[in-house]
Amino acid sequence: MSESCYHCGTECPKRPIVFDEKPFCCSGCKTVYSILSENGMTGYYELNNAPGKRPEASDSKYAFLDNEVIAKDLISFQEGRLTGMHTFMPNMHCSSCIWLLENLHKLEPGVKSSQVNFSKREAYIVFEHETISIRRMAEFLDALGYPPVIGKQAENSKKIINKRFIVQLGVAFFCFGNIMLFSFPEYFTVDETYNEFRNFFAYLIFAFSIPILLFSARDYLISAYKALRTKVLNLDVPISLGILVLYAKSTADIFMGEGPGYMDSFAGFILFLLLGKWFQHRTHDAMSFERDYKSYFPLAVKRINGEKEEIVQIENIIPDDKLLIHNGEILPADAILQSDLAQVDYSFVTGESDLISKKKGDLLYAGGKLSGRAVEVSVKSAVKRSYLTSLWNNQIFEKEKSGLSKIQDTLSRYFLVGLLIVTTIIGGFWLYFDASMFIPVVTAVLIVACPCALSISYPFTFGMILRSIGRNGLYLKNTRVIEELDGITDIAFDKTGTLTTGSSKDVNYGGEELSIEQIQFLDAATKSSTHPMSVNIRAFLQDNYDIPEAKALQFEEQQGLGLVVSDGTNELKLGSYRFLGVDKIDDETSSFVSWNGQVLGRFFVKQHFRKGIENLVQDLQNQGYRLHVITGDNERAREDLEQIFQGRAVLNFHQSPNDKLEYIEKLQKSGGKVLMFGDGLNDAGALQQSNVGISVSDNVYQFSPACDGILDAGHFKDIPRIMTLSKYGKKALRVNFIFSLLYNVVGLSIAASGLMSPIVAAILMPLSSVTVAVLSFTQVNFKSKKLGLLRAQL
User: Fold this and answer.
1) What would the DSSP string read from start to end of 549-564?
2) What angle, 0 to 180 degrees and rounded to 10, lies between the N-to-C axes of helices 152-183 and 263-293?
3) How far apart are CA 585 and CA 602, in angstroms?
């Protein structure tokens, strides 16, 4: 008896290649195993037995990538020694594939990182092109059994896969219609004339069943085969078992002259399976589109229109637009640098935080974070929200995975094991008492029992809440955040730019008269910063002075302290009294200005608390949350804050960015789960440390990957209602779980009793998924309407 290949599971030749006392069908499989073994990654085989794919010869398959012009079109990022490429990998099929592809850096030293999007069969790989070329990278992936499909070929492959599914559905529908037509006389008592044609019609029915089995049902059968080969159970195993049992019995009946058997049920089963799959894909695609392009990630940016600056949504940006990018902001699109110099940090793209110097005319890639003075850029290509969303979901910023989704995955796995055990018991019962009922009962049981309703409950329910919250001004990173919001015990607020707002009309200057050069320096400093104080001061300067463009200046921003600009001769500082090293004068909210070490004066900024904040605080307190204020400001606002929070909040002043982070840690160590609202810049560390960090923005154009969400400040008063809706998620999920349980208990009971035909079971199976989707939509919309949050969705 021949052995199976240890790597890919295929049958080995009579004389297999033996390496490390393990059989391999070819040198390719042996090479892949040796690579894994040398790097201490044989755990790949512990996830699944023989999980690999057999590599194909590829001596010249990727030779075209040696052409730099062609290769450049396939690269999404290239800077310094690093290159980033997106690849489509249709051979990705299970958990071991994900595990292997996300550990490529352990196999190939040139690979820096790899992120996998399993639902789209895509991977984003960053590698050192000096160590491994793009051609070698492609050949390396091919050798592992995951040949990359790159560029236009990937789009064509996706289109082919989608087109094939539509054809599969069409073939199933056509054959089902003809099978039902020829089976029609079987449902009625007919005269003996029909018996003369019965076998003829049965053979016609068999002929129409072949395309359904070999083409329309092939994906289920192949998936089940792969799962069994690797000793893993998935949903396609019981489905395929039901398909084969039903088909084998019907085929035997046809060739034994006993009529068409259950071919009508078989054809109907496949058709309704595909219809259910189509429905789920359409719903998932619609929700993904909503998240990627409408409400999930609402970036805006400053566009230069003549001499004016305007804030525009990034979908309105077109090539050749001139944009103003501030210190700490993310480039939303590939662009050409128009300013003389720029310092760019590509850590969100590559995971490495080294600053890269760029000069006028250089290409800047989307996802780079500007460090230093504000620069002007000219847009080279359109913005891709989905690409920016992938940066936001970078594993670097990922927190602990949610518990509900893990529980659901575990239940789904045990469900399949339990289903096969129950089916065996029921089959044995009918085989003993009435063998004629064995096939229809077992088939109906295998078909009607389905964990789909259980599996899609979590993504559908929380996905609907994610969309509803997004359309009401709070844009969350993923569904995990909604689950985290449900367990929040403490809510912490920054003050400036979060609880308060201001404008140029609320700014006054007191001190020595400023020279034109000093005003130029001030304008350059505040132009580069997105801190609320800087934004208001710059607006004041533009309203009151005619400011000529300053020459290139060096810029530095120290979070929570202030700004420094210099030209090598003169230096201007703008910030707190501590930053400038002067004595505290009073508790006025102000920013001091110094010129070459001499204090000139200060800007007084009168801040206003946001409208409706008193009701917001009261509602949150009534919901049982413990409230905290942690701010770098002085205590001048203590009296106002104590009145707003009615003495029921902990107030902390003079807090540095590190103090804020340590305060969050202290709350967490005492058992609290913290939701933090901040400005996204000075509070980045605290936002990252908190269980949920929300960046509040008046113009919704700051992007901090460290935060879990972005709140449009215009919806600040809606926070209590949004929190209530997020808490409703678990209640809605319980309703769906109960429905799934009842569906399977009732469906299995009826099927086990022999009162359900396979075709009825085939209809009920996708119908359960449809019902879950409808339940999720109805529950979330009803709750949103009740809370007054539905208006933005209509």
Assistant:
1) PPPP-EEEEETTTEEE
2) 150
3) 11
- Segment 568-586 shows an average pLDDT of 81
SS3 track for 388-448: HHHHHCCHHHCCCCCHHHHHHHHHHHHHHHHHHHHHHHHHHHHHHHCHHHHHHHHHHHHHH
User: What is 186-254 written as a DSSP string?
Assistant: GGS---HHHHHHHHHHHHHHHHHHHHIIIIITHHHHHHHHHHHHTT---THHHHHHHHHHHHHHHHHHH
Paired with 343 in beta bridges are: 357
Is 261 within 8 Å of 125 (Cβ atoms)?
no
Residues in the chain: 794
Q: Which residues pair with 23 in a beta bridge?
A: 18
Q: What is the Cα 56 distance to its own chain's centre?
A: 32
Which tens digits make up the pLDDT trace of 694-731? 888 776 455 555 678 888 877 888 889 988 988 888 88
- Alpha-carbon span 744 to 736, nearest angstrom: 12
Nearest to 367 by CA among 358, 110, 351: 351
Q: In 3D, which of 286, 176, 97, 353 has the Cα closest to residue 759?
A: 176
Residues whose CB is less than 8 angstroms from the CB of residue 21 and which lie 6 or more positions away in sequence, other chains included: none
Phi, psi (degrees; rounded to nearest 5) at 24? -135, 145
Closest CA to 343 of 331, 359, 332: 359
Contacts 24+ apart (CB under 8 A), 718-723: 718/472, 718/473, 718/474, 718/789, 719/474, 719/616, 719/620, 719/677, 720/616, 720/619, 720/620, 720/623, 721/787, 721/788, 721/789, 722/469, 722/472, 722/474, 722/789, 723/485, 723/488, 723/620, 723/623
- Band (pLDDT 50/70/90 cuts) for residue 388 is low
| β-strand partners of 254 | none
Give the phi and the psi of residue 422 in degrees, each rounded to 5: -65, -40
Whole-angstrom distance, CA of residue 747 vs CA of residue 728: 29
| Tens digits of residue pLDDT in 215-261 | 998 888 877 776 676 565 666 777 787 788 778 888 988 888 877 87
Tokens 């259950």 map to which residue? 262
Extract the tokens encoding 415: 């469900």
Burial class (CB in 10 A: 0-12, 13-18, 19+), 700: buried
Please report, for the chain, the start and end positions of each structural domain, with discontinuous segments joined by +. 156-293, 300-382, 503-606
The residue to which tokens 């292997």 are assigned: 100
What is the CATH architecture of 503-606?
3-Layer(aba) Sandwich (3.40)
Structure tokens at 246: 């039903």
Determine contact, residues 197/204, Cβ cutoff 8 Å.
no
Give 76-134 as a DSSP string.
SEEETTEEEEEEE-TT--SHHHHHHHTTHHHH-TTEEEEEEEGGGTEEEEEEETTTS-H
Closest-CA residue to 299 (of 396, 380, 391, 397): 391
Long-range pairs, 664-669, Cβ under 8 A, ≥24: 664/492, 664/689, 664/690, 665/689, 667/490, 667/492, 667/628
* pLDDT tens-digit map of 500-526: 876 656 788 888 888 888 888 888 888
Give the residue among 394, 390, 382 at the shortest CA–CA distance from 332: 382
Q: What is the pTM of this model?
A: 0.65
The structural architecture, per CATH, of the domain 300-382 is: Distorted Sandwich (2.70)
**Spatial separation of the C-alpha atoms in residues 562 and 655, rounded to whole Å:** 14
Asked whether the beta carbons of 140 and 100 are under 8 A apart, the reply is: no
Give the separation between CA 285 and CA 293, rounded to whole angstroms.
12
Say if strands 490-493 and 674-678 run parallel, antiparallel, or are unpaired. Answer: parallel
Tell me, rounded to whole angstroms, the distance of Cα 80 from its chain centroid: 28
| Residue 506 vs residues 219, 539, 590: alpha-carbon distances, Å | 66, 10, 11
Is 466 within 8 Å of 637 (Cβ atoms)?
Answer: no
Select from 165, 265, 151 the least CA-distant residue to 215.
165
Question: Is the per-residue pLDDT at 87 higher than 60?
Answer: yes
